[in-house]
Predict the structure.
Amino acid sequence: MNSLSRILAILRKEVRQLRRDHLTFGMVVGLPIIQMLMFGYAINTDVRNLRTAIANQADSHLSQQFVAELAQTQVVDIVAHVDTPQALEDLLRAGEISIGVYIPHDFDRRVVDSTRAAIHLLVDGSDPTILGVANQLRAMPIGFDTSGRNKTESLQVEVRPYYNPERRTPVNIVPGLMGVILTMTMIMFTAVAIVRERERGNLELLINTPVSSAELMIGKVVPYILIGMLQLALILAVGRLLFDVPVRGSIVDLYLAAAAFIAANLSLGLLISTATKTQFQAMQMTVFILLPSILLSGFMFPFDGMPKFAQWIGELLPNTHFIRLTRGIMLRDAALGDLYMEVVFLVAFTLVAMTAAAMRFTDRLD
Amino acid sequence: MNGEFAIKARGLTKRFGDLEAVSHLDLDAPRGQIYGFLGPNGSGKSTTIRMLCGLLTPTEGTATVLDTEVPGDARLLKPKIGYMTQKFSLFGDLTVLENLQFIAEIYSFPKADRVGRIDELLDRYDLIGQRKQLAGTMSGGQKQRLALACSVLHHPELLLLDEPTSAVDPQSRRDFWAALFRLAERGTTILVSTHYMDEAERCHRLAILDHGVKVADGTPTELQASTGMHIIEVRADEPYNAQALIARIPEVASVTQLGVRLRVLMPDSVSDPIAAVNGVLQSAGLPANATLSSATLEDVFVAVTLEPQKAAA
Ligand SMILES: Nc1ncnc2c1ncn2[C@@H]1O[C@H](COP(=O)(O)OP(=O)(O)OP(=O)(O)O)[C@@H](O)[C@H]1O
Ligand SMILES: [Mg+2]
């Protein structure tokens, strides 16, 4: 059939061009590896050795035992002992310490009285990670209060990392990172691939040949599906070899989920290409999509902790749904069937974006 | 092949915002002929060609190209036309051969004849030495030869060439035109825009556009015979000063210096143009020799594209 041979012709041309475009080709392979190393090694949310000062006014056996246990957690690194809570505040303000622990003189009595805080934690709240750690410290088997001003209920919060018992960052990050990397490369490559031809004038020639817009789009998109799959394999391999990231569920399910996700991103890339005139604009649009895909997808911050409005935006991003799929399949051994709503979203997204792109893509110049 | 004309346009108009790039253009290009498109920069040549192949939607007017309505049925037209864009639009990161192969595949050129056809074109357009070269690294003229080869590969009935030879050397241009004539003889209709008068002279018919308006249309001979101007050739010792003096004669439409000669255009309503020219030169003490000459295409071009106020004078 002529249509098929035209699609193949475009496909062949894309592959030839891609082979000569060393920069893009390098990005295909380099980007996932670099991102993996960056996120895997450099970004570490496991917090250790926070500089801490103690003001122990009780000086009882019980309070000394508590301080010893605190030191043993290795979360804190006790660097100073002072006399008053004021001294703790001074150290905190000067940035000498991240956490100040104030133990009142009637500590022993307070411990048995559940209505009064036995210990005051003074925390450098300007760093959300430290604040998080302080909250975890409250789970230590003595009632706490995070600060004098902010009286909290003496609820004992226990954080138990169920699917990642060692709390290793890469295990959490890699499934999400797959989505981020694929979002970035898939949207950018397709958008740029078409806009570049418009900029160079190739499109004026192409739309004057018997090639239809649909054939052109398919021919341009298919190579990138394969590239997306290649990147996925690369990420999984690096994750496995360097960070011991497991795939507990079915690898076939994972690839099926990825196929739906890649299709969603490619159609978004096509849509962007119909709305932009220059490669630079296409890049900007990609970044515009990428930022929320990192920040609002549940990759960086827990989805449930976000304000409702941010969650609504997040729900519209393919990456949000893909991250649920990858975390489910890779870490919780979930089957694709358990998560079918996420797949439904991705497929629907693809259809809508494709239709919009096809409607906007004209075979005219005006 | 039914209609007598490959292109028939009536009242074709294209506006970009306030700018009327092409204005109420009527055009009839007979089949199997080379139809030339002349006009200063921005006169609407490319815009017209784009409307004719269905790339741009006319603001007003209709066009029938190879018995197909454009832009409505442009899809049916695409396999039958070859279009060479003014700006190089082939793939710079593919080799010459790969570009030709791609075009052959896109037009579903019969597989069995592909290699033969490509070799024939490489030979005809003198690209054998460049077949493995990336198209983007070729010289301007080589690129244009490749673009022409690609636009004729599928034996189109109609060829639209937008300034195909602007970067081609004189010898190659001659070969290029020999190739065009050969195509026309076999029945291909060719619409070619150009800024070269020697090329315009070779066309069967010509249209001259100015600010989107067709200001002249006919065979080169017809156009030369109907300029409505006297053409006076002046040999003067101080051509620069002479030019300034002649330009001050109110009737003079244009003066152009060609080496030591001056070419003066004056409306043919002036009864004795020689006397008028000799008069100003002699009173300034410049020895001069003015004779009547016949119009070249360049004279025609200058006469019809004059600035309005000068033409009215
Ligand atoms: N897409 C567009 N948007 C706005 N104006 C345009 C557009 N395309 C062309 N024009 C304007 O229309 C006019 C005609 O342009 P066109 O390219 O047809 O001229 P041309 O005769 O081919 O000139 P040249 O000899 O320089 O190639 C010009 O003034 C140009 O600026
Ligand atoms: Mg032009």
Remarks:
- Residues 309-313 of chain B have pLDDT under 50 and may be disordered.
